[in-house]
Amino acid sequence: MDNSTYIALAIYFLVMLAIGLFAYRNSTDDISGYILGGRKVSPQVTALSAGASDMSGWMLMGLPGAMFVQGFNTIWIALGLLIGALFNYLLVAPRLRVYTVEADDALTLPDFFSKRFGLNNGAVRMVSAAVIILFFTLYTSSGLVAGGKLFETAFHLNYQVGLLVTVGVVVAYTLLGGFLAVSMTDFVQGCIMFVALVLVPYVAYEQFDSTQDMLLNARSTIASLSDSMSHISLLTIVSSLAWGLGYFGQPHIIVRFMAIRSVKDIKLARNIGMGWMLVTIIGALATGLVGVAYVHKFGLELKDPETIFIVFSQILFHPLITGFLLAAILAAVMSTISSQLLVSSSSLTEDVYRALFHQDIDEKKLVNIGRFGVFAVAAVATLLAMDRSSSILDLVSNAWAGFGAAFGPLVLFSLFWHKMNHTAAVSSIVAGAVTVLVWIYAPVLPDGKTLSSVIYEIVPGFLVSSATIILVSHFGKDPSKAVQKTFHATNEKLQELS
């Protein structure tokens, strides 16, 4: 590896750490600043922060790798994600921004769930915090796997060493600067990802004589677009599109909506965010497609399809550009890891420690406890990620489904249905999470297969969670008048702002 590549990566690491130090000096005096940046984040930073924290290492590694395995069927996942992200901006973003303020200035998603029902420490707060900590530890490990694979493939370092370098840098700036550091680094990382996912597939495509030449070589490995569309089953389409359902329940994404400086800024954030997402997803799919063709035409040996972006970065570009492109993968990985660490730490600090033990604790002490939470979650996720054989896409899909089913229906019903009660909220989280876990791990089908081999687990999980909310609310007590008053006040505020 040329020295200029290492120089480019070193510059990237220094920029991330400098941002963390800047944020440490400007926003971490109180817990609101550490967790939500004081609700003063610009729409530009909100959009790219939401996108970068969403499209983690799986965007540059998992999704191109899926093209090798699933071919053009991967397009359905991309379509589902685009639709889900758009409706997340339209349905959740404005209401959540207003409602979290109206509900006694809720700082975390579990805090909002509890205060939504007029409770400071309701059971829904503890249950949702536990789910966040559980699934985000798994989710974070997927990002660390991607980081470890990057250093192993690109620099021929030991996988575990690469993993530790990745987690070390992320923990440093997240622990120092909190939400502001995470958002600002996400913005920079989102810009890097955007350029990389335009540049790499374009330069790789230029190695072919024509589009027809590229597609002919691709067909040697995967079915053509027309064949893929004609032979795909309805259940496969539903499973792929259902990825979009996950957006409504992803704490590390929707917390961005809570932190944006005003509801009026959400429209601009939506336009920027959806434009960024459309280009980057097309770029990721194109990288996988051109990669399939390139491997066949030039006889390239590719041991792990999820590393095609890394391989292109090494063989098609000047070493200095290679360093920039490898930094794009690190950007994708780190942006998601930092967001997940911060949300997990926020739940440990605000929803567990403060809620149960020290409600009147000094703000600065609470911020320090939050920093310890970042370190603790990262340590557990690192231990889980030590298994190099883990599939990035599989890890992400499991955690994505867990959050989507446990929180997605609850977020939507909390924002749009005033008759949902507290018991229904708690029941829906448990029902959604348990359904997903059973679907993934219970070997109930012949040959020991699980139900997830039939349909993506988020579908039954989302349906069971939604049905639980409706049934338990119908047969249980209606929320108090004070709770319903806050709900209607939110609607009135939204009408005024619109």
From TrEMBL:
Which PROSITE patterns does the record associate with it?
Answer: NA_SOLUT_SYMP_3 (PS50283)
- Coiled-coil annotated residue ranges, if any: none
Keyword Cell wall biogenesis/degradation carried by entry: no
Q: Which Gene3D superfamilies does the record match to this protein? A: Sodium/glucose cotransporter (1.20.1730.10)
Catalyzed chemical reaction(s): L-proline(in) + Na(+)(in) = L-proline(out) + Na(+)(out)
Per UniProt, the keywords (alphabetical) are:
Amino-acid transport, Cell inner membrane, Cell membrane, Ion transport, Membrane, Sodium, Sodium transport, Symport, Transmembrane, Transmembrane helix, Transport
Q: Which domain of life is it from?
A: Bacteria
Query: Which InterPro entries does the protein's record reference?
Result: Na/Glc_symporter_sf, Na/Pro_symporter, Na/solute_symporter, Sodium:Solute_Symporter
Q: How does it sit in the membrane?
A: Multi-pass membrane protein
Q: Where in the cell is it found?
A: Cell inner membrane; Cell membrane
Enumerate the transmembrane spans. 6-24, 75-92, 122-139, 159-180, 187-205, 232-255, 276-296, 308-333, 366-386, 398-417, 424-442, 454-475
Q: Which PANTHER family match?
A: OSMOREGULATED PROLINE TRANSPORTER OPUE, SODIUM/PROLINE SYMPORTER-RELATED
Chain's role: Catalyzes the sodium-dependent uptake of extracellular L-proline.
Instruction: Please state which protein family the record places this protein in.
Output: Belongs to the sodium:solute symporter (SSF) (TC 2.A.21) family.
- Protein name listed in UniProt: Sodium/proline symporter
User: What species is this protein from?
Assistant: Shewanella dokdonensis
Gene of this entry: putP
